[in-house]
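Moderator note: this is an archived Q&A kept for reference. The question asked for a predicted structure of one protein chain; the sequence and the answer are reproduced below.
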Amino acid sequence: MADKQISLPAKLINGGIAGLIGVTCVFPIDLAKTRLQNQQNGSRLYTSLSDCLIKTIRSEGYFGMYRGAAVNLTLVTPEKAIKLAANDFFRQQLSKDGKLTLVKEMLAGCGAGTCQVIVTTPMEMLKIQLQDAGRIEAQRKLMPETVAAGTLETKSPTAIQLTRELFREKGIAGLYKGLGATLLRDVPFSMIYFPLFANLNNLGKRGKEGPAPFYVSFISGCLAGSTAAVAVNPVDVIKTRLQSLNRGSTEDTYSGVTDCIRKILKNEGPSAFLKGAYCRALVIAPLFGIAQVIYFLGVGEIILSYLPKRDK
């Protein structure tokens, strides 16, 4: 398969635009996913995705569903740009010596997932605090016995306030809490997603070298994204729990990945690792479907074509 040759600036633009559009569309579902994953036995405030969204709108208003969206919209551009550009870079390098095999495709995905955590970890760290703040506030009002005594009754912090607090207390390491779990999630995700997408997309190509129609790219992105999302959901639950700073008084705290796995299995059972799985599939499917359509339509190349060219 001859991969489409796209310049690095175009890749970055494509990834950034796709991320902005995708996050705007699916962020409320992502907020529900975080809240469902974080609630533990004895402090269950939400019963389902719809229940979470309805209660969020009632208690926090429509824009309550977009808590933490500013962080995502700011950092998703470099995050998605790095992931897509890195995958293409590794695919091109690995295909120089011959056919791009499935193993090489997985290695390219591994490289992309490893590169993206530079941005993903602090983005997720800040986003999770902002998304879960509403759950803690609702618990304080409806289930006061479940809120930890040390949890301050203050207005929801901003991303800048959270960043300053983390820097002051733990330095740069504070923003990278849960880095190991993020790697354990994002590397396998990319190893599953990119090869699966490429092979599904190839099935819809017009001829051996012709591009696939945009709807094939969209469907391929949705199917590959939802499959990879559900496959790594157990690690996503672990990452969300490790990165959450505020908890109810009846909720467990964790010292690391192993401790988190042990306590979840003991206190909540194996099914807890699937919390929010369908939400995550609903988030990732359109997110990556949109990304691949933007990428294959060549939006970045169109934008660059309007910029003045330098004389050689």
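Archived answer notes: The mean pLDDT is 84.
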